[in-house]
Amino acid sequence: MNLRIVFRTCAMMLLAEGLLLVLPLITAIIYGESCAWSILGTIGIALVLGSLGLLLTKTEEKVIYSREGFIITALSWLVWSAVGALPFVFSGEIPSYIDAFFETVSGFTTTGASILRNVEEMSRGLLFWRSFTHWVGGMGILVMVMAVLPKMTDRSIHIMRAEMPGPIVGKLVPRVNQTAKILYIIYIGLTLLEITMLLFGGMDLFEASVHAFGTAGTGGFGIRADSIASYSPYIQWVMTAFMIVFAVNFNIYYLMLMRKFRAIASSEELWVYLGIVAFSITAVAINIRHLYPAIGDTVRHAAFQVMTIISTSGFATADFNLWPPFSKGLLFLLMLIGGCAGSTAGGLKVSRAVMLFKSGTRELKKMLHPRSVSAVRLEGKTVDDKTLSGVGVYFAFYIAFQLLAFILISFEPFDFETKVTSVVACFNNVGPGFGAVGPSGCYADYSVFSKLVLSVSMLLGRLEIYPVIFLLSPSVWMKKR
Length: 481
Prior knowledge:
Layout: H1 3-20, H2 22-30, H3 35-56, H4 66-84, H5 86-91, H6 97-108, H7 124-139, H8 141-148, H9 157-163, H10 176-200, H11 205-216, H12 233-246, H13 250-257, H14 261-265, H15 268-287, H16 295-310, H17 325-337, H18 350-368, E1 377-378, E2 381-382, H19 385-408, H20 416-427, H21 448-462, H22 466-471
Antiparallel strand pairs: 1-2
């Protein structure tokens, strides 16, 4: 284990976080808010710690192997969350550090679970930072650094694979930093397009920016107590459309730029994802038809809630706690599935769900025809046994850690539905669940211990388990590679 490169990269990440905090600082200054001093103090802490880290970890060795990649990823996300929580505490707007840490982890992991009972009381500078964490965490904080640092080695693919969601992560072009730049150019372009369309809907620049950050990162932090419910149908439809867009594998948009439309048309994951979306919207709309007077309202609410759940964004236009059991059951299933691999969405991922289904049907066929030979195919290619085994192992960990988290918070004085959906919503980076943590509720009443358990669950879900496991494994930190 090359500890120097691990801590040196984390120091660089602190410097990057300090620079990013300049944007909420400017916002606070524009609105004349006192939280500007809290943000400025945090910038100072991040820059001092980052600079000291770089001075103390000088090294000629700059090669990053898979072990370092996993540790750097997990440690960087923890450090960013720990420091990113400070403005909330310093300002007194979230006095408890544990609450502020929970809110910040929820932001960076694009979960959107909140401990705030009245978000409208918070200053705009901190609301901007809160939503901006979604945007930064959506594509990945280390992917962002790789996009702007030309000296990152090609071995940095180990960092990208540790941080980017999905079973398979590869390079779009030969150099990793060029791949990161392409991803961020697409990401920034789509975000600016959404901001523009929201401005046309009557939002001011601040409102449009924070909601675009939440949609792009599929996070869900809003600035109103009712989330998106009080905004116009136009705003709700625009956000619905962009939730669909940001839950799609970003490789699709790269293929669009390269005019490889035939490859897009043959993307099995894309068509399965769109099929799930179309079926779910139709089924929910039929099921809740009696709750809304107009068919247009019914379809709009069904489409918005289906997309906010499958994209793991966590916004809301209606309290789906009050919907019929069938709709709630379907939304719960969508929480588990999530969006496409290589998107900003959380969840198990559509590609994994497809591979698990195909692998299961293959095993059933083998039981009937033991001598038959069949292959699992995805995107027109044969999926090798190593990948299928990896998906199976990940799914086992995925279920096991959610069960463990549920057991750890089971002592809480909430009903079964609240506790189960709290874990599922946090682990799959959805945000709101059912019961006390539904769209009209929050996580404020959980104990300190449970908030820490749910914070770890958010990190496990966003980083897809392995980096956090390796971070906590003493054997991985041993020097022998």
